[in-house]
Amino acid sequence: MPTRQRLKELMISELMLDMTADDIGDDTPLFGPAGIGLDSVDALQLVVMIEKHFNFKMADQDQAKRILHSVSTIAEALEQKAVA
Amino acid sequence: MQSMSRNILITGANGALGLAIAEYFLTKEADCRVFLGVRERRERAEELATRFPGRTDLITLEITSPEAWKTALAEIEAKAAALGVLINNAGFHEDALLANMSQDQWSRVLDANLNAVFHGCQAVLPAMMRQRQGRIVNIASLSAISSPAGQTNYAAAKAGVIGLTQSLAKESARMGITVNAVCPGYIEGGLPADWTPEHLKALKMQLPMRRFAKPAEVAAAVFFLASAEASYITGTALKIDGGML
Question: How far apart, in whole angstroms, are the C-alpha atoms of residue A44 and residue A64?
Fold first, then answer.
């Protein structure tokens, strides 16, 4: 399964989102009223989810903030790690 | 009924309530394993362990030390995989009127009753988050809700425990972790040794049930809040006071 699709499906199940993968655009901001509307608790869960399912550990809060912007930014970070 | 065997850590397991909680779990949940958090005094916990061989372990735990929590959890994980339930029960009070209370009296009580709960919760959360399940029950006190004179330190600490419980419950709700508190009133075996029989008798007369709680009556509520059946209860502070408030 493509990384972006997998991320969306994991987010829906682990963050208990009442939506489908199609409702989440690749570049839609995950946080804030203009986007999906995730909150700080979701952010913590996303960090744990990414570490658990992709073995990718965020270095610090700045990196997490940058990477957790959208599904695309997360996928890109995971793909970069896979190449490195 | 629980769906799987669980590992349970109870702090303050040498005290009357800690022992009662441990015994309640061991009796009601056939396949659980209970870790009895103790410090120097451990004779009663050791006696309980001899009655439930193979299902109990004594863990030395200085609850005010984050490092001690890490060490204790590593020991538990090495013996029995991840922890499923944490009961933050340890604590003590050191009463004095605020006008006479020393900074040390204030700090010791805050450290043991509130800061230790913070350390415990912070220590167990990562594993519970990875498992996406867990139960935390914090033993607060009726003093948090109706604070008597002479307990500014203890009442503040226990009120803090309720605040921590409610806030952490919101933070962990979507991760399958529930965080609750109980607020017991007077418990048999947990009263100051220097209270005279006359004082105890007068105290009972003020209680609607005219008796103190048995430790097992508090343990039953803790057990329920830690059960699978309590899956939609989180952030509550359940008073167990025989109708006092």
Answer: 10
Task: Report CA-CA distances (Å) from A6 to A2, A53, A70, B171.
Answer: 6, 10, 14, 25
- C-alpha to C-alpha distance for B216 and B233, rounded to whole angstroms: 21
Contacts of B130 in chain A (CB under 8 A): 48, 52
Q: Inform me whether the C-beta atom of residue B41 falls under 8 Å from chain A C-beta atoms.
A: no
Chain A: residue nearest B170 by CA?
A: A41
Residues of chain B neighbouring A15 (CB-CB closer than 8 A): 174
pLDDT, average across residues B192-205: 92
Query: With left for phi above 0 and alpha for psi between -120 and 50, is residue B54 left, alpha or beta?
Result: left
Instruction: Quote the ipTM score.
Output: 0.78
CATH of B7-240, one of 3.40.50.300, 3.10.310.30, 3.40.50.11540, 3.40.50.720: 3.40.50.720
Q: Is the pLDDT of residue B2 over 50?
A: no
A68 pLDDT band, cuts 50/70/90, is very high
Average confidence score pLDDT of chain B = 95
A44:B171 CB<8 A: yes
Q: Is A46 on the interface with B (CB under 8 A)?
A: no
The CATH architecture that domain A3-83 belongs to is Orthogonal Bundle (1.10)
pTM, two decimals, is 0.92
Nearest to B238 by CA among B187, B159, B181: B181
What is the four-CA torsion angle of B148, B22, B4, B59, rounded to 10 degrees?
A: 100
Q: Does B132 touch chain A (CB under 8 A)?
A: yes
CB–CB contact A48 B130 (8 Å): yes
Domain boundaries, chain B: 7-240
* B118: pLDDT strictly greater than 60: yes
The residues of B annotated with a catalytic role in the active site are 154
